[in-house]
Amino acid sequence: MTHTSLPFPDGFLWGASTAAHQIEGNNVNSDWWRKEHDPAAGIHEPSLDACDSYHRWEQDMDLLAHLGFTDYRFSVEWARVEPAPGAFSRAEIAHYRRMVDGALARGLRPMVTLHHFTVPQWFEDRGGWTADGAVELFARYVEHCAPIIADGVRHVCTINEPNMIAVMAGLAKRGEQGFPPAGLPFPDEETTHAVIAAHHAAVKAVRAANPDIQVGWTIANQVYQALPGAEEVTAAYRHPREDVFIEAARGDDFLGVQSYTRTKIGPDGPVPAPQDAERTLTQWEYYPAAVGHALRHTADVIGRDMPLIVTENGIATGDDSRRVDYYTGALAAVAAAIEDGIDVRGYLAWSALDNYEWGSYAATFGLIAVDRVTFERTPRPSAAWLGGLGRTRELPRDAS
């Protein structure tokens, strides 16, 4: 079998990502915990213990380091750090600092995300992101995270997928549930402005903690592809759902790109994938090349001077050989983008663990399988393969 070298620059981030609520378990003060236990919300199953990573984070990091990864992206849970307004838990801040120290001790560079979808229940009760003073409250929380991030953390993500936060807010305001067969609903404009303001305030707070930290945020890229004659429709559809958030990153140190599949746009809007298209466990079209398109579009919008990091990319599947195939195609697309001059600084897979995918455990994204009863971790063959690529930087050419 022939191989091709991956053109990763020195210091390239090579890792996997997780989110606190999806793996920690028992985040009882978060808005999602309350939602999961509200019958009216229609959530398929609650997170409960999740992967119990709040107690087993050392085991998770041991596995990632042993597999060959050099970077680990994890998040801090706001509802733990500030369970009541203005009441900051020294114990929880110390817990997340131990995670940073634990990563460093294992040779894993920590990338810390300060907000990954969940907020404290008290913040939601105040009206969420669009309430008076919400931006200042988020900035205050970020300031209190300084002991976690100020030493030894090179990369900080302020807010994960703010465009999805705005989309979900739009659904809630309209009293709607669920997503259309293709594409995304229209984001709430007020929430869009609020999270952008919160991000800018958080960037200042992070830089005050340590000006050497590289700070940015991460955008969910839907890879909108125009069908013939639908170029203007596609641009109009994409702009409020994606591009305004990319443009808001000007002045940041990096921008996180997150992508899984594509969305085709016709003259009348989003077009579902063909019935015979291969689909993942999330029912998304199997499309490994998505991340390459996402990187190129992001660079086109914000300019090629902005460093990009793939902060999430992966596949929900029960066939681990198909997971390897997906990552092979995705990494070939990343390599091609780098060779074309796009400044890509890292690749972090989603996800390190099988976890709670916002309503269900059925969609298995994990490089590492997790037994829901015993919490035993079992690295899949794809985990050893992907981790090893960070050392060999050799990708099978005929599988790409």
Automatic annotation (TrEMBL):
One Gene Ontology term of the molecular function aspect: hydrolase activity, acting on glycosyl bonds
Recorded family membership: Belongs to the glycosyl hydrolase 1 family.
Stated name of the protein: beta-glucosidase
Enzyme class: hydrolase
Signal peptide: none
Presence of keyword Hydrolase: yes
Record bears the keyword Lipoprotein: no
Active-site residues per Swiss-Prot or TrEMBL entry: 312 (nucleophile)
Source organism phylogeny: Bacteria, Bacillati, Actinomycetota, Actinomycetes, Kitasatosporales
Taxonomy, superkingdom: Bacteria
UniProt keyword annotations, A-Z: Glycosidase, Hydrolase
Pfam families: Glyco_hydro_1 (PF00232)
The protein's Enzyme Commission number: 3.2.1.21
